[in-house]
Amino acid sequence: MSYSLKARMAVRTVTMDMYSPYIGVIKGCFPNAEIIIDRFHIAQHLNRALNQIRIQTMNDLRYKSPTDYKKLKKQWRLVLKNSSDLNFHDYYTHRLYDGMVSEYIMANYLIELSPELRDSYEIVNKLKRSVRDYNFKRFKQVLMNSKKRTYPRKVRTVLQTLEKYLDSI
User: Fold this and answer.
1) How many of the other CB atoms lie within 10 Å of CB of 45?
2) Integer Cα distance of 78 and 143 in angstroms
């Protein structure tokens, strides 16, 4: 508010995260500004939800399958890594797996441990890929198609939040 009304009216865009109290403040201070949700916070929001599902799956397997528990605990980065960035060319031995494996094989093994984790991984990666490629049309389509399926509560909450801020995205 230290700037004149004329200066504040000249602001065209404000880039921010999805913290709703700030949106009201921004609209009050900069009435002509278009609010833009930045890509980093979208990806961060999606990764947090996916990581919570990974932890839930990991805890479910703690006593049923201790080796799978260790894999999910130690290799959390593979689950959060963009599926298109996984290395599927280079094979090597890994102490937690039998035989030769690649990042792609290990990530697929991990997400197949739970249907909820697999479904969450797929939707999160589709959305992150759309954001990375600046493909808003595909992003919106993936969000709308997500209503047809059941996802864990944490993922559903993120999807609803993204849908709520679709205009700013």
Assistant:
1) 20
2) 24
Q: Please, how many CA atoms are within 13 Å of residue 28, restricted to the half-sphere of its CB?
A: 6
Over residues 110-139, the pLDDT tens digits come to: 999 999 999 999 999 999 999 999 999 999
Classify 99 in phi/psi space as left (phi over 0), alpha (psi -120 to 50) or beta: left
Spatial separation of the C-alpha atoms in residues 148 and 48, rounded to whole Å: 22
DSSP state of 10: T
Closest to 118 in 3D by CA, of 53, 73, 63: 53
Which of 77, 136, 142 lies closest to 103, judged by CA? 77
pTM over 0.85? The answer is yes
